[in-house]
Amino acid sequence: MLFNSLEFILFFPIVCLVYYLLPGIKGRTIFLLLASYYFYMCWEPVYALLLLTSTSITYISALCMDRFRSRRRRKISLFSGIFINLGILFFYKYYEFAGSLITDFFSLLNIGIEIPRWNVLLPVGISFYIFQAVGYAVDVYRGTIKAEKNFVVYALFISFFPQLVAGPIERAKNMLPQFREKHKFSYENFDTGLRLMIWGFFMKLCVADRVSTYVDAVYNNYMEHSGVSLLLATFFFTFQIYCDFAGYSLIAIGSSKMMGFTLMENFHRPYFAKSIKEFWRRWHISLSTWFKDYLYIPLGGNRVGHYRHLWNLFVTFLVSGIWHGANLTFVLWGSLHGLYQIVGIEKNRLLPKINVSKRLHAVFNCLVTFVLVMFAWIFFRANDLHSAFSIIAKIFTDRGPLFTGEGIPSLLLGFMCIGILMLKEIKDEMSIKVHALNAENYWVRIISISLFIAFIILTASFNGGAFIYFQF
Fold first, then answer.
1. CA distances (Å), origin 198, targets 19, 193, 256, 271
2. 3-state class (DSSP) for residue 431
3. How many other CB atoms sit within 10 Å of the CB of residue 427?
4. Cα Rg, the chain, nearest whole Å
5. Which of 261, 314, 323, 440 is deepest in the core (most CB within 10 A)?
6. How far apart are CA 228 and CA 223, in angstroms?
7. How far, CA to CA in Å, does 123 sit from each of 35, 95, 391?
8. What pLDDT does 457 receive?
9. CA diameter of the chain
10. For the residues of 212-243, what is the DSSP string, one character each?
């Protein structure tokens, strides 16, 4: 069930209404759990068993860690839960990819060994809910939180439908206490949540899906298009990936807010970052902080020698690339961001400070960061490494005519929606208030929101389909 589908438009109001009508916390928790599993089973019912398996394993693992006093037995419980969960993730997401690499390696050595392959459908959201479950197990082991003894509450934490299939990857210390509260209907929460959802739909339908047609047409047939067209498609994809994923996050956060739950912020205007380091503090915040807490810091973080610190950074971003998918393009994308981080650290050590105004320096750094991020997105979007390097070569050498796709009006509409997005982001970045959106007058706000919904309906592209990050 997609957020941008008629089914969800019907499903969510019913869930929200029933949730507030139910009198007790226990009944609400059970209802939300059933609704979340129904939501997930709308894709492939059988994969709900995987969700239940991951939930049960980490639930039992955490209870064992809470019960055992021996550090050795606690470690066994922790690593058993992590190993089984990551094993499930590896089989469904990476087994075929790893088998192909191993088979190719043996063929180069003239050894006739072929790894058997299974064509299995990747369960939607598996990377997200397994990382959430693993993070919970580690937190229990560290003593950050106590193991949740109520299985229904814990199962809801793992499967909560707004953020189940594409995040944010939540933390138990944030969500578990909220599931024990009886939330009362709040006009303020409803208003805030609704506006977040509306803006999320704008990002998805009017920006991401609007420009995706051009991006797909160019990238899927890159040999037929000029470097200028490929550069424009890369620029469009830079906003497509952002608006597609951030749009989902806003709909998830907004729908949760309308029911009284507060999810963590997942994007914070990342294209205003003035360095790659800052970019990752603003982009997919729930994943970047997950890797920081559960991989980078355990490796030693920056509390080790200089070169070991650089290695820890590189490994963290390499794994981040692998997390995104079983393709060498993602590996190179993650490695490139790791190299960006290393160069950023070394640049400050080797280069002298330039005496220019702070504002000019900030704008320059922002533009450089945007270009570096946009360049890396080429590897993320390309179908394979050969295509990625060919696209880069054509961008720098081919000065053919611009491909107009569905026509100049369609391109202009795409630019207009990106412009509206950036005006909103500039407003938020500079903390500029707009009277119509912040007016105390109830009717002014209703009319403003209604006009914006009408604008979304008129300019939206309804052919985009699933959110990009569902495949991860």
1. 21, 9, 14, 21
2. coil
3. 13
4. 23
5. 261
6. 12
7. 18, 14, 31
8. 80
9. 77
10. HHHHHHHHTTGGGS-HHHHHHHHHHHHHHHHH
What pLDDT does 431 receive? 75
Structure tokens at 462: 């309804």
CA 410 to centroid of chain Cα atoms: 27
Tokens of 452: 């914006």
pLDDT band for 410, please (50, 70, 90 cuts): confident
Contact assessment for residue 286 and residue 266, using Cβ atoms and an 8 Å cutoff: yes
Locate 88 and state its tokens.
């499930």
**Tell me, what's the pLDDT at 335?**
94
Q: For residue 264, with 0-12 CB atoms within 10 Å meaning exposed, 13-18 middle and 19 or more buried, which class applies?
A: middle
What's the whole-model pTM score? Answer: 0.90
Q: Tokens 């990009």 belong to which residue?
A: 468
Instruction: Give yes or no for a contact between 248 and 240, defined as CB atoms under 8 angstroms apart.
Output: no
- Tokens 């424009």 correspond to 232
What are the C-alpha distances in Å from 60 to residues 138, 139, 140, 353, 422?
Answer: 13, 14, 12, 55, 47
Which one, of 132, 135, 136, lies nearest residue 159 by Cα? 132
Q: With the C-alpha atoms ordered 453, 406, 247, 22, is the resulting torsion angle positive or negative?
A: positive
Q: How far apart are CA 278 and CA 273, in angstroms?
A: 5
How many degrees, rounded to 5, is the angle at CA 36 between CA 32 and CA 40?
A: 170
Residue 218: both structure tokens together: 């160019």
C-beta separation of 414 from 211 below 8 A: yes
- With a CB cutoff of 8 Å and minimum separation 6, the contacts of 103 are 113, 114, 115
Which residues belong to the active site?
324
Q: Which two tokens stand for residue 459?
A: 């300019």
By C-alpha distance, which of 163, 164, 158 is closest to 262?
163
**Cβ of 322: how many Cβ atoms within 10 Å?**
17
Buried b (16+ CB within 10 A) or exposed e, 284-318: bbbbbbbbebbebeeeeeeeeeeeebbbbbbbbbb
The alpha carbon dihedral of 325, 330, 331, 335 has a sign of negative
Phi-psi region of 357 (alpha: psi -120 to 50; beta: other; left: phi over 0): beta
Give the Å distances, CA to CA, from 254 to 133, 199, 262: 23, 10, 9
**Which residue blocks in 398-434 are alpha helix, DSSP H?**
408-429
pLDDT at 352 over 70: no
Q: What is the pLDDT of residues 264-303, one digit of tens each?
A: 999 999 999 999 999 999 999 999 999 999 999 999 988 8
Indicate the length of the chain as a whole number. Answer: 472
